[in-house]
Amino acid sequence: MSILQFDQHVDRSHTQSIRWDKYGPDVIPLWVADMDFRPPEAVIQALTKRVEHGVFGYTYASQELKEVIVDYIHRMYHWKISPEWIAFLPSVVTGLHLSVRMLTQPGDHILIPHPAYHHFKDAVLGAIRDYSIYEMALHQGRYILDMAQLESLVRPQTKLLMLCNPHNPGGTVFTKEELLAIGEFAKAHQLMICSDEIHADLILDEGLQHHPIGSIGQGIENRSFSLMSLNKAYNFPGIGLSWVICQNPEIQKKLMQDVHTLIPNPNLFAYDVTQAAMEHGQEWHASLIAYLRKNRDTVHARINAIPGLSMAHLQATYLAWIDSSAMGWDNPFEAFLNAGVALSPGSQFGDQQFVRLNFGTTSKLLNLALGRIEKIYQQ
Ligand SMILES: Cc1ncc(COP(=O)(O)O)c(C=O)c1O
After folding, report:
1. In angstroms, rounded to a whole number, what is the distance separating the alpha carbons of residues 279 and 72?
2. What integer is the mean pLDDT of 244-249?
3. C-alpha 305 – ligand 1 centre gap (Å)
4. Can you give the pTM of this predicted structure?
5. How far is the CA of 3 from the centre of ligand 1 (A)?
């Protein structure tokens, strides 16, 4: 399988794509986090088989799927888990909101990252919980969290720490040592850790390894859980499935209490595509990572060559976090949009002077967009 398959342009206009339909044909849409690529052929085949069967009744996650996930977690993260630790949700966002609503109470206090995917904050605001923001600050080229700052923010009422690993939008892949420090902090203050790991299979740097929070051991597994999904890495977020890995049965039970009532079960297509991607998507995935790595390097070189724009090295994800503060713009998002490129406004992640660029697209389109961005400076 060649990485050239990702050069193939798939017309997504008028397919109810949030990303492609919002700004019209004159704008290159590099915002919402889905990619322009078709998933592995096995995923399409699994869907086709299900569609051709033609009866779409109530369904459930099979024991076989759980076993496939157990194998996958072992292959990808060298972590031996047990099928009972797995529970299914329709999406990771559902998991973020359930974590806050089911595991904390009014009056409890929560620690959330900044900058971060907006649902971390939406979850605490939606549940009307007290919260403090911990900064992910640039240190030696990586956005990391500061343990001293965390210590200064924690209160007797703090119950939950929200983590995003790999980090969106900074791209940080946390090391085992960093996770151990976070876990020890959680143990010392009796916190739970909700770890959003949706970007786990989008590590671009060779030699880096994703560590699920529970795999660190040291008792951290009793007070933490991972929210996982193949939605991002295999590009089927419109179908959607996520699963929680939680070794502590009490936490898992609380978290899942409203599933099948307020929260719907995942749909049958979601189970099928996830299993197909895990069983047959390995080669496709390796090619995808090679393609995204090239795109990342292109974005990094061309953005950093523009005076006034900069980005740090991105270890993971296909989402570049670009600092435009030196441009002195009131509204960076508008400046890029006027040039014909729609990016995600940094304000969505808590920092107005940044924008986020989705390079999960063909290198041809990416280069076209970067050319438009370069022209802003040349004007
Ligand atoms: C950190 C993070 N969590 C969750 C999601 C969305 O997950 P889902 O589509 O499964 O709800 C995203 C999407 O960009 C994300 O970046």
Report:
1. 8
2. 98
3. 30
4. 0.98
5. 25
